[in-house]
Amino acid sequence: MNKKISKIISELLKFYEKTPKHFEGKILGSMTTYPHALAVYAYNLFMHTNYGDPFIFSTLKKMEEEILLEISKWYGETKLYGYITSGGTESNFLSIISAMIKSGCKNRVVLAPDTVHVSIVKASRILGLKLVTIPTNNSPIDPCVLENYVRKYEPCIIIVTAGTTELGIIDPLKEVAKISVEYDTYLHVDAAYGGLLIPFLYKAGRIKQDLRFYEGVSSISIDFHKNGLTPIPSGMILYKDKNDLENICFDASYTLYGKYCGLLGTRPGGPVASVWAMVKYYGFDGYYEQAINMLDLARYTYEKLQGTKDIYVYEPILPIVVFRHGRIPYTELLHRLVLKGYYLYKSPSVKGLRIVVMPHLRKEHIDEFIEVLQALVKER
Ligand SMILES: *Cc1c(COP(=O)(O)O)cnc(C)c1O
């Protein structure tokens, strides 16, 4: 091999060695996972393609159609419209843009419970809108309270969450959808985390709420790079109405296709191929089984933590387990865990630490973690 290349490769490998890997079982809080080998293959095969140009790369459009046809069924629909995005952040931006273009957005208000993801805060600010948040005290939004806010603020979009980042809370979608119909307001459901869990866990009778396009729901965002096992960046925005999708496409007359959709211009085709491969490989049944396994492991983690002295733990709704120590502040506990090589995330709203059970986690990883945690709290 060319000397220069082999030198660069050996340096790359050094960086790689020092990089935490999911399968080592110490990345416990991040909503990322190790992608499936088939998804990586699909991604690499389509490395040269530009999803921003579906004229030259029309095969991407064909794959997109097949993805939509299949996953529409998962959400109880025959035909949904949608676009592969770079993730939940872009999908959430696009929902707001669709709503703005659709309604004109007179009052320039985005309305959401205070459990809403930070990407909505960011999008509202960048788009020059006012985000009104409704205090919830970490509960699903109360539809009556929401209705009062809708009356008062006349928002151009209501955004609720199906699986909040900090605690996995699912807002009451059916009831909120009724309000959006009554007040003729665009409703977006942020299911970036819960999108590939909720339909399956509901079917299995493990949660009480389903994720569907109830009448009044205009769009749903889901992320494949969280529980879908594809490489980053791959999310999706799903629409019930084709016009809402067209509102996120803009003229680009110099291209053969004639328009650009989404926030990016030139954009990777790899995610389209990898999502296609995972949808074909796992399908409803594969993701169903995975979701149940993850929730079981979260329950196991919950019980283990409950058996740990001075630890208070929240019962998981989705595979997210939040806990705190009776005396050690959560930020300090996190700092100590990081020194042991563990990466948890914070749930600041309840002053706790968060374990998100992702597809790569195993029981052994949890057992090892509990041992480390027990030793750490004993040192005090
Ligand atoms: C992860 C997440 C997002 C952001 O998605 P990215 O893929 O990181 O851009 C938005 N909303 C919720 C509820 C999430 O869990």
Secondary structure: elements and pairs:
Layout: H1 3-17, H2 37-45, H3 58-74, E1 81-85, H4 88-103, E2 109-113, H5 118-126, E3 130-134, H6 143-153, E4 157-161, H7 173-182, E5 186-191, H8 198-203, E6 217-223, H9 224-227, E7 235-239, H10 242-246, E8 249-251, E9 259-261, H11 270-281, H12 283-306, E10 311-313, E11 320-325, H13 330-339, E12 345-347, E13 352-356, H14 363-378
Parallel strand pairs: 2-3, 2-4, 4-5, 5-6
Antiparallel strand pairs: 1-7, 6-7, 8-9, 10-11, 11-13, 12-13
The structure holds pyridoxal-5'-phosphate.
Describe this structure in words.
The strands form three sheets. A seven-stranded mixed sheet has the order 1-7-6-5-4-2-3, with helices on both faces. Strands 10-11-13-12 form a four-stranded antiparallel sheet. With 380 residues, the protein is of the alpha/beta class. It contains 14 helices and 13 strands. Pyridoxal-5'-phosphate is lined by residues 31, 87-89, 92, 117, 119, 161, 165, 190, 192-193, 223, 235.
